[in-house]
Write a structure and sequence with these properties.
alpha+beta; BirA Bifunctional Protein, domain 2; Herpes Virus-1; Rossmann fold; seven-stranded mixed beta sheet; five-stranded mixed beta sheet; 15 helices; 23 strands; binds adenosine-5'-triphosphate
Length: 456
C-alpha cells in the first residue's frame, strides 16, 4: 500500500484531513476528523490503562505546555535540541543531513549522534545525491534548534521568551518531588503523561509520521541506581507486548538497539521499536535508560534537592530513570497502515476493510434499518438504547449491502439490522466485521453481546 492511498482513505472516511485545507493547508499539518479523534482517544485510553491505571506504583500527570524557560536550559534542549540541516545548492531543497544518509542506505547506516563533520564526510565520500534534484552539491551543515519559541505577556524581548514544550517528559522531571511527596510514592515508581509536544522539524513528512505538532505518551520510571538495566529490559518487552496487544502484526515490528557511538553520552542503553511503514522501517517507540542525568540537571539549575531517601537502606541518592516514549500520531499511523486493507480477500469475497482491534475502532456498532419506511422508528429506539453504552452510529442511506461495506471500510465491528423479525419477535441480526457471520439475538442481549466480544 502506498502512503498516498492511506491519506486518501483517511480523508474520504473522516479519519484525518489536511490542516487548514481551505486556505491551501499548512506544511504537513493534519486535523483528526470524527473517526480519527475517536481512534486516538481509544488508543490513549488503552495506553493509560496499561501504563498508569493497572500498576500500583504508577501515577498520572497533566503538566503545563509552557514552562519556565530555565527547564529547557537545564534539560539541554536550548543548547542542543537541534537537527543537522543541509541545503542543496542547486535546487535549494532543505534536508536533514542524518536522514539523507539513512534514506540513501535504506536505514542500514544511522547517523544519530554523529558529529557534523562525520556526517559531511560520509555524504561526500559516498557521493549521496540530493533526493529532490539528484545533484551532489551541498552547503555545510548548520545546526537548527527544534524548539518553538513564543513570548509571554506584552513585550517581545528575550526576557519574555518562552518555549512550547519539545517533549512532555520534562513536565514529569520537574514534578518528581511533588509526586513523590503527595503520593507517598516509594521507588521504584513511574509517572505517565499524555499531551501535545511541538518541534520545528526541518522536514516534516510522510503524512503524520513526522509533524511539528503531535502528541506523546511518555512514561518516566524512577528506580534505584544499578537496577536500571533490569528495568530497561522489562520496559522494552512491555512496550513490544503492548503493541502486539493493540493488534500490530509482529512481522512489521522490530527492536533496534542503539550502538555505543549512537548512544547519548548519559544513556546506558537505548532501543527503538521500529515499524515497517510504507516508506520503510522507522522509529515508533524510543526506550531509553537515561540514568540520573535529567534529575541531576534539574537539581543543578533549580538548586532544589531532588534526591530520594530510601527508608529500606537508609541511603539518599538520585534515582535512575528508564523512559519509554511514543508518539500518539505515529502510532495511529502504524495502526492504520497495519489495519487498512483496500482489497481484502477471504472466502471469495473482496472488500475494503479496516481490520483494527475492536477496542480501538471508533464506532463499535452501527444500527441499520432494513427498510427505512418500515423499520426506522424501531431502529432509532435501539440506537438510543445502545448509544449510552458504547459509540454507536446509525445509517439508513442506500441498500443494506452498501451500508455493510461502509461499516467494514471504517472498521466498525458490528452491524445490527432491524427488520420485520425485530418488530414481530424482538430480535435483531448482528453481523461480525471480520467473519461476516450473522447471528440472531434478542434486543436485550445486544449490550452484553457486544461488550463481551470487545473485551474478549
Ligand atoms: P526522530 O529520530 O524520528 O526525529 P526522536 O528520536 O527525536 O525521533 P524522541 O525524541 O525519542 O524522537 O520522541 C519520542 C517519540 O515521539 C518518537 O519515538 C516518536 O514516536 C514521537 N515523535 C518524535 N518526533 C515526532 C514528530 N516530529 N512527529 C510525530 N511523532 C514524533
Amino acid at each position: 500500500m502506498k502512503m498516498e492511498d492511506l491519506v486518501n482513505y483517511c480523508k474520504q472516511y473522516g479519519y484525518i484531513f489536511q490542516g487548514s485545507e481551505i486556505y491551501g493547508g499548512l506544511a504537513n499539518s493534519w486535523d483528526f476528523g470524527p473517526l480519527g479523534r475517536e481512534l486516538k482517544e481509544n488508543l490513549k485510553k488503552m495506553w493509560w490503562q496499561e501504563f498508569v491505571l493497572s500498576k500500583k506504583n504508577s501515577y498520572g500527570l497533566d503538566s503545563a505546555i509552557i514552562m519556565n524557560p530555565n527547564v529547557w536550559v537545564a534539560s539541554g534542549h536550548v543548547a542542543s535540541f537541534s537537527d543537522p540541516l543541509i541545503d542543496c545548492k542547486k535546487c535549494k531543497a532543505r534536508h536533514r543531513a542524518d536522514k539523507l544518509i539513512e534514506d540513501a542506505t535504506s536505514g542500514k547506516v544511522t547517523a544519530d549522534g554523529w558529529e557534523n563533520k562525520e556526517i559531511e564526510e560520509y555524504i561526500e565520500k559516498n557521493n549521496i545525491p540530493c533526493p529532490t534534484c539528484g545533484a551532489h552539491d551541498f552547503t555545510p551543515i548548520r545546526k537548527f534548534n527544534l524548539l518553538f519559541e513564543t513570548y509571554m505577556g506584552v513585550t517581545e524581548d528575550s526576557k519574555s521568551k518562552v518555549y512550547l514544550r519539545g517533549e512532555t517528559a520534562q513536565g514529569i522531571f520537574v514534578n518528581f518531588k511533588n509526586i513523590e511527596r503527595s503520593m507517598r510514592a516509594k521507588l521504584p515508581f513511574g509517572i505517565g503523561q499524555i499531551g501535545k509536544a511541538f518541534r520545528n522539524e526541518i522536514t516534516p513528512s510522510n503524512f503524520i509520521f513526522r509533524v511539528r505538532e503531535f502528541e506523546q505518551m511518555e512514561y518516566e520510571f524512577f528506580c534505584k541506581p544499578d537496577t536500571d538495566l533490569e528495568w530497561f529490559k522489562y520496559w522494552k518487552q512491555f512496550c513490544m507486548d503492548f503493541l502486539i496487544k493493540l493488534g500490530l502484526n509482529k512481522d512489521n515490528l522490530r527492536f533496534r538497539d542503539h550502538s555505543k557511538e549512537e548512544l547519548s553520552f548519559y544513556s546506558k542503553a537505548t532501543t527503538d521499536i521500529e515499524y515497517l511503514f510504507p516508506m520503510g522501517w522507522g522509529e515508533l517507540w524510543g526506550i531509553a535508560d537515561r540514568t540520573d542525568y535529567d534529575l541531576n540537571c534539574h537539581m543543578k539549575h533549580s538548586k532544589e534537592d531532588l534526591t530520594y531517601f530510601d527508608q529500606d537502606t537508609n541511603e539518599r541518592y538520585v534515582p535512575y530513570v528508564v523512559e519509554p516514549s511514543v508518539g500518539v500520531d505515529r502510532l495511529v499511523l502504524a495502526l492504520l497502515c497495519d489495519a487498512y486493507k483496500p482489497n481484502y480477500e477471504e472466502n471469495g469475497v473482496t472488500r475494503e476493510l479496516l481490520k483494527i482491534n475492536y477496542k480501538l475502532a471508533p464506532y463499535k456498532v452501527t444500527v441499520l434499518p432494513l427498510i427505512k419506511k418500515q423499520h426506522a422508528e424501531k431502529a432509532n429506539e435501539i440506537y438510543e438504547k445502545l448509544a449510552g453504552n458504547f459509540p454507536t452510529t446509525y445509517d439508513e442511506t442506500g441498500n443494506i449491502g452498501k451500508r455493510y461495506r461502509r461499516a467494514d471500510a471504517i472498521g466498525t465491528p458490528f452491524c445490527i439490522t432491524i427488520d420485520d423479525e425485530t418488530l414481530n419477535n424482538g430480535t435483531v441480526t448482528i453481523r461480525d466485521r471480520d467473519t461476516m457471520k450473522q447471528e440472531t439475538i434478542k434486543i436485550d442481549e445486544i449490550v452484553n453481546y457486544v461488550n463481551s466480544k470487545i473485551n474478549s
